[in-house]
Amino acid sequence: MIGFWQQLINGVTVGSTYALIALGLAMVYGVLRILHIAHAGVFTLGAYVGLVLHARTASLPTAFLGAMLACGVAGVLIQRWLYRPLLNQPRIVPLIASIGLFIFMEDLFRLLAGPYVLAFRLDAEVRPLEIAGAAVTGVQVMTLIVTAVLLGAVWLLVGKTWLGLGWRAAAQDLGMAAAVGVNAHRVVALNFAFGSAVAGAAGVLIGALYNAVYPTMGSVPAYKALAVIVLGGLGNVWGTVVAGVLLGLVETFLVGIVGGLLPRDSIAFVALILMLLFRPTGLFGER
Amino acid sequence: MPEVGLYYYTLGITVGIWMILVMGQNIITGYAGQISLGHAAFFGVGAYASAVLSTTYGVVFWLALPASVLITAVVGALLGSVSLRLRHDFLAITTIGINFVVVSVFLYSEYFGGSLGIGGIPLPRAMGVVFTKPLYLGLVVAALGLAAAADRLLKRSWLGLSLEAIREEETAAAASGLNVSALKITAFAVGTGYAGLAGSLYAHFMTFISPHDFAFPVSITILCMAVLGGLGTLRGALVGALLLGLAPELFRFLRDYRMLTYGALLVLLMRYLPSGLLGDASPLWQRLITRPRGVRGGVAYGGAVDPPGL
Hints:
The complex is a heterodimer of chains A (287) and B (310). Chain A has 287 residues and is mainly α. Chain A contains 11 helices and 2 strands. Chain A has helices spanning 4-32, 39-57, 60-83, 92-113, 138-160, 162-172, 174-179, 184-209, 219-231, 237-258, 264-278; strands at residues 129-131, 134-136. Chain A has a two-stranded antiparallel ribbon. In chain A, helix 9 (219-231) crosses helix 10 (237-258). The longest helix of chain A is centred in the N-terminal third of the chain and has 29 residues, at 4-32. The termini of chain A are far apart. Chain B is mainly alpha-helical and 310 residues long. Chain B is 68% helix and 1% strand. Chain B has a two-stranded antiparallel sheet. The chains are: A mainly alpha (287), B mainly alpha (310). Chains A and B meet through helix 4, helix 9 and helix 11 of A and helix 4, helix 9 and helix 11 of B.
């Protein structure tokens, strides 16, 4: 039996990566009301870009910033070319388009990088810690720091800047925001850029945490992140973050206790269905 | 019988089963407008019900088939009544969840054979004749015909019109005195009943089933078939199932690029032909049905236009 503190640290680290992936999804949903499945493809792109840049430059900041930049650009392209023309269609149309794009991206990664699992070792670069007898690996330390920095940045951006004001206005009513002078297209594009960049960082972190980067690494997060954004209340950014961390904790502790009774990856959905029965608008209410 | 000939029978049976599945999805998503991303779960419920009935309890196929349709419809109605509390996107995500949970029940329960699945499901037989492939194809075609006839009846009935009213504007439908909850549950029950039929046919054709056959990607394929053909129309459901059902064959020459092409096709289709190939609002379909005087009302009336010959 692994100690309580160890489990807590493991749970929080895994949970922070869920939170980061779901954060971008929640931001996109908040403004456009689109279930952006291809977000998980963007996340995988981040992992690959981070891996390649780190192998070339041996610099951690370059790997992170490069991954975030590449994903940000990819996000804007997706929004421009795919979602913008589909906004007036029934909701199922962008959903299917997004699923198609995700299938396309996964297979593209397979063709470009091969079907193999590539190792992504970053452990040597950050010093491990020991808290209350629990060993915290270097990658875990890095995950917690990067998550804290990115969440802080989102908080500043959304809460304290004109851009954030525009986002919140657009999330309330896109048409009305445009009518009162918010450049809706630019706000939506920046929203995509930022959400996708955060997913890119999460890709690097998950690749390093599990020491594995492979073409289909996005498929489990794709559906789990959907469960997380519903748990947090669709479009509610902070609810999503809390739900992500909670899910990481619950998964880690439940797997430690009930073991093989329930596959780890379906815990999210069991929690989801239970919650919807009792609190149909999410743990923290819908935006 | 040469092997090649048998292969075409297999293909025909598989496409027929897809068609029944997509018809069910079309009733839930196309007619009633409820997004479901978990149709494969009900396909699985039907298949497992039929498999357990015939292997564990020795029930003959001809009773196991209707029983599994009924069981699946009841499960569908139950889960549908849970989902009633949810709006569009919540419903979509919850149905993904239902798919994952149902598959893990099959996977982790000894009763359903666990990860090994259930084998030795008997082929149907009648009057001493065993239904091998050619006869089984006939059986599937008969089931398909019945299912399509039921679909026509449903769509032209008061029930079909009410479902479309809910799809177009739920609040207005409720204000006009429709019992929205009961109607949605009915749509779920009927649509999942179709999946149960397909599941039973699948189980007795394959004679072996395992949880993976009913996983989430299968749900995505079913939904994509319905959307590709054109949601809300029977012809769309049939054509979508035919095209994507044959896709592994049609795209065979692409070899390593099959999934890439599949994904790209979905994206391009949604981008440039969002109502599917043969949906009521699809330019392609409009051209096909335009007569000298022109059928202008196609878009405005939505599903109400019933073009001749399907």
